[in-house]
Amino acid sequence: HLLRRLAKSTVASVHKCATALDATPAMVYLAALDATLARLSGTPDIPVGVSLANRGTLERETMVGFLVNVVVVRVDVTPTQTFAELLQQVRARSIEAYEHQELPFDRVATALAKGRGLGHAPLFQVNFVYEEARPMPSLAALTIAPVHVETHTARFDLAFALQPDDDGLALTVEYNEDILEPATAAHITAMFEHAV
User: Fold this and answer.
1) Which residues lie below 8 Å from residue 49, measured CB to CB, with a gap of 6+?
2) What pLDDT digit, counting tens, does each position of 38-47 carry?
3) d(Cα 158, Cα 172) in Å, to the nearest integer?
């Protein structure tokens, strides 16, 4: 995997763009990823799996546990499209997908990916995660700090995880080493950073 950091100034520019175009920062980063993938693949049809916290109800807000679900946000990227137009498409398709986040991904995949090969993930090969910045809880005599855990296993061909913090934005790119060389993954990451 690759670890990168986007500067505070870049994060501020993304927030400004999101506000100006009635989107969220996550949607801006996803649009940049979509543009990068379209440019690299030469295809306009870009499906990306977006991992969501799936805590959309009041009852789930306080639950402890891993409640992540994945929705597929599929966009059509064209060479003549402006970034603002792509972002509006990402926004619309994201909102549509979020409306169905309660439906378990494995059911969707089973219903839609009949006859698929087991050599790759169903419906998408690239995953995207944007974690909102949240203050760490404080517990009287305990110190709580996030810990990066290395899995040494890529769950997808390519996965981008973005996490805002006090220093800007941490970007973790995980890739399947059976499919991508380290130099290729670094090149894709650099293209994404440039698109942002």
Assistant:
1) 70, 71, 72, 105, 121, 123, 124, 126, 127, 128, 156
2) 999 999 999 9
3) 11
What's the rounded Cα separation, in Å, for the pair 172 and 164?
Answer: 12
Contact at 8 Å (CB) between 185 and 2? yes
In angstroms, the CA 77 to CA 86 distance is: 7
CA distances in angstroms from 23 to 56, 160, 164, listed in the order given: 19, 19, 17
- The whole-number pLDDT of residue 40 equals 93
pLDDT digits (tens, 9 = 90+) for 4-33: 999 999 999 999 999 999 999 999 999 999
Q: What distance in Å separates the CA atoms of residue 28 and residue 94, rounded to the nearest whole number?
A: 11
Q: Are 28 and 6 in contact (CB under 8 A)?
A: no
Beta bridge partners of 2: 173
**pTM across the whole model:** 0.82
Q: Measured between alpha carbons, how far is 173 from 14 in angstroms, rounded to an integer?
A: 19
Query: % helix / strand / coil in the chain, to the nearest 5?
Result: 35, 20, 40
CA distance 13 to 29: 11
3-state secondary structure of 21: coil
- Give mean pLDDT, residues 39-59: 79
